[in-house]
Amino acid sequence: MMKGFISRTAVAAPAQATRRTGVLVRLAEDNSAWLAGSMVVALVGAALAAPILAPSDPTAIDLANALAPPSADSVLGRDALGRDVLARILHGARLSLLLGCVTVLLAGGLGSALGLVAGYYRGVPDSVISRLTDVQLAFPPMLLAIAVVATLGPGLFSLVLAVAVSTVPSFTRLVRGVVLGLATRDFVIGAYAVGAGAGRIMFKHLLPNCLAVIVVQASLRLSTVILTASGLSFLGLGVQPPMPEWGAMLSDSRRYLLLAPHIPTTVGLALLLTVLAFNLLGDAVRDALDPKLAT
Amino acid sequence: MSAFLLRRLSTLPLVLLGVSIAVFAMVRLAPGGPAELLLPQGANEAELVELRRALGLDEPVWIQYLIWMGDLLRGDLGRSVFTNRQVVGELLPRFLASAELALLSMTIATLIGVVLGVIAASNRNSWIDRATMLLSLVGISTPVFWLGYLLILMFAVNLGWLPASGRGTLTQLVLPSVTLGLAAAANIARITRSSMLEVLSDDYIRTARGKGVRERTILRRHALQNALIPVVTVMGLQFGALLGGAVLTETVFAWPGAGKLMVDAILARDYPIVQGAVLVFAVAFTVVNILIDLTYAYLDPRIRYT
Amino acid sequence: MQRTLVGLIASVLIATACGTGTPAGQASPGTVATATPTQAGPRLLVIAGAGAPNSLDAHDISHTLTFGILSDSIYDSLLKFNAKSEFEPRIAESIETSSDGKTWTLRLKKGVTFHDGTPLDAAAVKYNLDRLAASKDPDLGRRLAQGTKISDFASTEVVDVSTVRLNLKAPSAVVRSALVIGLVSPAGVQKYGKDFATNPVGSGPYRFSEWVTGDRIVMERNPDYWGPKAYFDKITYRLVPDAATRVAMIQTGEADIATTLGPEEIAQLKGNEKLELLIQPSTRVMHIGINVTKPPFDNVLVRKALNLAVDKEAIVKSVLAGFGRVADSPAADGQVGYGPGVKPYGFDQAQAKRLLAEAGYPNGFKTTLMVPNGRYFRDKEIAEAVQGYLKQVGVDVTLQVQEYATHIAKLREPAGNYTLYLMSWSSSSGDAGVQFTQAFTCASIPTFNWNRLCDKELDTLILDANATVDPAARIAKNTVIQQRLMDRAAWLYLTIDNQAYALKQGLKGVFVIPQEMMFVREAHY
Questions:
Q1: Which of A137, A276, A287, A277 is nearest to A211 (CA)?
Q2: Which CATH number applies to A21-61+72-293: 3.40.50.300, 3.40.50.2020, 1.10.1740.10, 1.10.3720.10?
């Protein structure tokens, strides 16, 4: 149980004050949180309302107008098959957000849980989890994703699974590292001394301290997921056509960069704004969760 | 310390065994096999069956595994299904090329990333902080093949300062490593910054400040060392990723690395190459992991004796 | 907007580039030949190529592009292709055929030696043909890739030191395609065995120098060549998988030739006076194969309806950006034995709907189309376009995008559980008759006949045409076969791509044939 966890005596100190009540207050006071929050809301809103907002069907081909630049008829221009870029970006927002969120939730949840258990219990559980993580990390990153896609066939489900599987170890390792570093912290020892059980210690004391790192990692990973999908498209293993996935659109448009710069520019901007929004939000949440960082 | 090292090294065989089983199974789970792709034009079904037999694919999977392991333990990684060349001869130069690129990229990434991260953290919420973080966000959200392509357009085609692709001269090393380095630097900068911020507000830092210790000493001696723990984790993961996963950069810059080799091999179902390459990568990556753990222990003495 | 983004990134990058540098002590792992054809200094040719060969053994090479570029430079062959895709003598100075067409007597050029000094005489030629004909190569444990081209041979005899006699099983019009395969040195094969693939010994104007795996293949001039001496001291074939990078290389001058370019790349290079663009039709027929054993596709009316429903001209114009033409037959103009005059299906969706209704599907039906993602030029886009067209006549197609390996595996499964599949097909022999044999005869199910058409009458016609030696008669027979294949509609005929290359201005002696082979042995500035 706690056997290996405390390796030497330490001065007992009062347990860390609970932060729950303060979090929302701090969040509300942070300007960048409002900015990020509104960007995320706008994004999610645009994604959800895509069928209404989009000027046309994102999969409707119009070969006569292929690669048309922005005009009154199509605000952001058209792609290689004449499909409206704005419509594809909006519908692509749904896809990318779905992809990103599900993957990060899956991977983050599983990975963090594993990392907590490994770092807390040490000993055998740590060995097993660490070895499994090692085995998985010992696989070249893209290869695992490609193998999953090759086996299950390209598609949204296999993409999510492929990227999630590749993302779990980073959460595990990160959380484990932080937990190991917290081993001798006063409040943990204090909690143990007071008689708290393993679960309580893990979730009430350790996890909140990991949250900052987890949140930052998650917000980073969100964009990585979209970029991984883009990379897989570049290699020819992305989502099935005619899905308007941003990564695939970016990868395809590279070949006509000089002929139709409006495509990579607009899609790239959309991606940039999404990444920015989630990262800002992640930062704000992290700042709010850790009172020591509040200024 | 040496006991720690020995214990970590003792995990290596277990990990390799796990990897070998996993890759063997994984590559055979994907539909289709090398026989279908190798079949010469005009061949008939009987020849396809015969080809499968010649490649040893008609045996049950576990027997194929044992045969492969047996050869492996004798130092024979087999021959590529497609080129019929020794796997070792195919792998070594490619991994060397990847290592070269990875080392240089990580150097660039660490230099830029850590410096930017520290600057941002110590000037929190100033314009420097915001500018560097914006920059790193742009770095994170640009797909690496786009960045590489833009660099080629700029420095090779428009300015003519550097060659566009290939490997062999120092100048050819610049663009691909800058591409990877910048992409990795963005990530490192962010992690460094957030980690530094964490540490900088710790009690013992406040104490040091209260005692009147100079800010720079605080940064270097107290804060940085502890802040580097998560950074080192990320660096280790990224180096591993670069060693075997830089396939996008390798494709754009025609860099003959291991990432592209593995992707091509799995798409071509060249089983011996995939298996051999993943094993080599696993060894390299596990060694890097062990080095990271050693660095943890160095950076945080509290971990050392556990 | 694009410019500001590029500018922003550029200024950041320039700032960074100035701040960083390569650390001291990085070893330079060998030099690479750069392409600067100056008067002084060595004469170098650099080719930026899309794919790498699987082997440099002339009998086992299966990669079309390097068959021309590398194999044809390192090896001599009995016959060669000229720029019009016709066969011309090379080592076989003359060929006499017996009246029954089953015996060919070849008179060989005298005094030719391999790069290792051994003579290229009748014995060597016999060795080569026997090696090709072997059903299993002793070193590889399987048949050599080029071996199937020789299936019509019965035996080879040495008549005298410079005369060889080939005995065929039956008269054949396709046997010449086997005679363009390179001739390997018997001594070389004995010496290197399994490693001959990486240590090729031929007799051509260029010798093999080095092969850095995944990076480049270098050939150097053979000073003892019997024919016109090679112009270049070294030819380097660099493997550059990304088309945009190949374009960059030809623009910077790093490469003299860039292969396998598409219309976007051509559009970017147009007007560049330092380059010459080589654009030609290929022989690759892009089509959607229809599994004729699976309903509703067992009904020929349905298959014809599919052909009528798609506007192929529009696809060529927009999806291919005019970079190709409509396919009017399962063979392509440019393949030996192609029969012209077959009418393509038009674009008539009304008629398509009528045919579907007649077949019993007035409301259309649902089906799946397998697409090998990223394998062929714009395959994804073409599939999406076809999907759109078929939807308009009520056929609801779900695209099933998969990796090429999976694609081929599913096609080759004996059970054949698929309906539609996208494919781009060209027989490596460059012969229309071989194309028909491989793609439509009963014997080729399921290795290469994936539409699974099995028409015994058709098989007989095809075999007969392949045995017809007289060219005019053969073409007439092939026309009949082609028309019949059009009528059977086992394929949804789509397009024939162009092939495009960029060459440095002033580079001469390079030519390309529709079979997508490029020949550089006579290249010079």
A1: A287
A2: 1.10.3720.10
